[in-house]
Automatic annotation (TrEMBL):
It is found in: Cell envelope. This is Fe/B12 periplasmic-binding domain-containing protein. Its main location: other. Belongs to the bacterial solute-binding protein 8 family. InterPro entries: ABC_transptr_periplasmic_BD (IPR002491), Bact_iron-sidero_bind (IPR051313). It comes from the Bacteria. Keywords: Signal, Transport. It comes from Marinactinospora rubrisoli. The lineage of its organism: Bacteria, Bacillati, Actinomycetota, Actinomycetes, Streptosporangiales. The keyword Transport applies.
Length: 174
């Protein structure tokens, strides 16, 4: 089980002899997250998948909500799709070939690309182009720079992740 970003921040603050500063950072970020949820009620209950492309012809699809990236998305009100959570395996993600791309279909499909040619590979795939999430505007491509703060999920990276993700999610959910 992962530690929450709140626990990591307060533990780190205590270890550095700065518990008040850590508590203030946590409180400020919790307020910002609450504001984002309040300002974006359409996020609530929307399903998502999160995948990474790091080889041609396949995606690694996150299958467990017990992950820092999933935790942040769920704090914003989104829910990991049943297609993703239903994937077999014991790792946090599962490799899925392009012939099985329907598994990434949800209200929002977030995809991080390690290289631009991998993005072209996916976006030019006929199966991917036919997915409802793509046709309905819910596909959200992420560069490594956009993905990094989302993946770190610390008290210092989450504000950057919110700056990147909230506008993208707004556009994706319509």
């Amino acid at each position: 089980m992962r530690d929450s970003w709140q626990r990591i921040a307060t533990s780190g603050g205590a270890a550095l002899g700065r518990p008040e500063e850590a508590a203030e950072l946590v409180a400020d970020l919790e307020t910002r997250l609450s504001e984002a949820v309040r300002e974006h009620p359409r996020f609530a209950g929307r399903t998502y998948t999160f995948s990474q492309a790091h080889e041609a012809g396949a995606l690694s699809v996150m299958r467990t909500p017990d992950d820092v990236t999933a935790a942040l998305l769920e704090e914003l009100g989104l829910t990991m799709s049943e297609r993703a959570t239903g994937l077999a395996g014991s790792e946090f993600s599962v490799r899925v070939g392009f012939e099985e791309l329907e598994v990434v279909d949800a209200d929002v499909a977030l995809v991080n690309f390690y290289a631009e040619d991998l993005r072209d590979d996916l976006e030019n795939n006929a199966v991917f182009q036919r997915l409802p999430v793509v046709r309905n505007g819910g596909y959200v491509p992420l560069t490594n720079e956009e993905f990094a703060p989302l993946r770190a999920s610390t008290v210092l990276s989450i504000p950057v992740a919110l700056d990147v993700m909230v506008p993208k999610l707004e556009e994706a959910v319509g």
